[in-house]
Amino acid sequence: MLVLYTAATNNGVRANIALAESGLPYEVRKLDLASGEQRKPDYLDINPAGRIPALVDPAGPAGEVRLSQSGAIMIYAAGKAPGLWPAQDANKIAALQWLMFACTDVALTSSMLWQATQTMPEKSAANIEYSEKRLLRWLGEAQEQLNKSEFLAGELSVADYALFPVVHSNRVLVQKAGMERLMQWHAVLHARPGVQRGLRESG
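Above: the chain sequence. Below: its structure as tokens.
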């Protein structure tokens, strides 16, 4: 059985949602980041970087697999559960592009905004505004794509599950910006049992 180590961060949630939607058997071990569980020796043996999420697959292709990075975990899960990818080959290529978009450009900017409002020693209104505008620029690209198709890659896929946590955690900002199509997409995903399970397990 797959074992996911996670917490209530966007990275942890997206990996959790992918597993919940995959239909694969898995268990969740939630770490308390505030108390430093991610820096304990047992977890560092799984992920020496001391970050979440991490996945352990005892039945990997050449023995036990230990994997970090949310995007890598999602791709690995999709290798075992092809239903996480679109059925059409052209859409699979598009899904890979939007998955990377969500895990790099959007996730990084969302993290910048969180740090600007929560953890930076000096919280600057100018830096917060800059981070908000940058995040909305990236999310605007996703909205433009969703204006052309129901889901990011034409069909529901890991790309949507990768972007969802950022929109979910910033939904007040997204609503304020008037991104109605993005919020419609969010509502469709939020209603899915697998997405609900992923939010519940990692939250």
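The first strand starts at residue 2 and ends at 6.
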